[in-house]
Write a structure and sequence with these properties.
It is built from 3 helices and 14 strands. It is of the alpha+beta class. It has 2 domains: 95 residues; 151 residues, Immunoglobulin-like (Sandwich), CATH 2.60.40. The strands form 3 sheets. Strands 1, 2, 3, 4, 5, 6, 10 and 12 form an 8-stranded antiparallel sheet that branches. It has a 4-stranded antiparallel sheet with strand order 9-8-13-14, with no helix packed on it. Helix 1 packs parallel to helix 3. The N terminus is likely disordered.
Length: 276
């Protein structure tokens, strides 16, 4: 005869009484990370200078997205669509990164070329003119690479403005001339301006100065009558030429006359070394 003890619960019989096994949590982290990195990478790729950031984020987004898709296929994750979108945005970021790199490299190359061009350009191209600087015509111009100009040389300025200074010739000022000192010699030069550009050139700001001798003594400009000392005025139209004569007072023993020409505020000064 069996006895049952009250107050005690008998153990469950058989395997059906075991507790259920808990489900594993979804591993969606890589898919979300791929989406975030892909969005940031694509936005960065829209700015060419940030090509490097777009490239790094694009690689990470593509890798995380592909791994996230793999987890979703194995049932370890539930955000397959998000992971796929992140991988696609990663690929877009890589494409934008390459485009940005090409744009940046081309921009840098263009900037370097412009800087090199600016450094290589001189204020005035130097040419040797075989003709005289008068209305009788000029000879063929050939490139000259010296630092200064000689008689008959032509300087070409911005805007295709050409200036030529002739060889100095001695002359005798009249008794009413201003700027000539007794005992000194007087020399005159012919200056020619040719406008080979497309816009008119204002000659009102054209100035010329001279120094004579080894010591570089200031050579006073001589104003003599209606022709010497008046200089240029008005504008020189495209395709036109203007000529003026200048006279300078130099010591009797001077062997050279250095003439400095300034076509205006926007042009560099240049010097012609003339033998007397």
């Amino acid at each position: 005869m069996s006895h049952q003890v009250y107050g005690q619960t008998p153990p469950p019989a058989g395997p059906y009484g075991q507790p259920p096994v808990p489900q594993q949590a979804a591993r969606n982290g890589l898919g979300v990370a791929a989406l975030v990195l892909g969005v940031i990478g694509a936005l960065s790729g829209l700015i060419p200078l940030f090509f490097w950031l777009a490239g790094i984020l694009g690689v990470l987004a593509l890798i995380f997205g592909l791994v996230g898709r793999g987890r979703a296929k194995r049932g370890q994750a539930t955000n397959k669509g998000i992971a796929t979108t992140g991988a696609v945005l990663g690929l877009v970021s890589l494409i934008l990164s390459v485009v940005g790199l090409v744009i940046t490299v081309n921009a840098v190359d263009d900037a370097v070329d412009e800087i090199d061009k600016a450094l290589q350009e001189t204020p005035a191209e130097k040419k040797a003119d075989t003709g005289a600087a008068d209305d009788k015509g000029a000879g063929t111009d050939t490139e000259k690479k010296s630092e200064t100009f000689a008689a008959g040389d032509t300087a070409v300025y911005d805007g295709d403005i050409e200036v030529t200074v002739s060889k100095p010739t001695a002359y005798t000022p009249n008794e009413y001339a201003v700027g000539h000192s007794a005992g000194n010699k007087a020399y005159k030069v012919t200056v020619r301006i040719q406008n080979k550009g497309a816009e008119k050139y204002s000659a009102d700001l054209f100035t010329i100065e001279a120094r004579a001798g080894e010591s570089g003594t200031n050579a006073e400009e001589i104003f003599d009558g209606d022709t010497l000392g008046n200089g240029f005025s008005g504008s020189v139209l495209p395709g036109k030429t203007a000529t003026a004569e200048y006279a300078f007072d130099a010591p009797a023993d001077a062997k050279n006359l250095d003439v400095e020409v300034s076509p205006g505020f926007d042009f560099e000064d240049n010097t012609w070394e003339l033998e007397l």
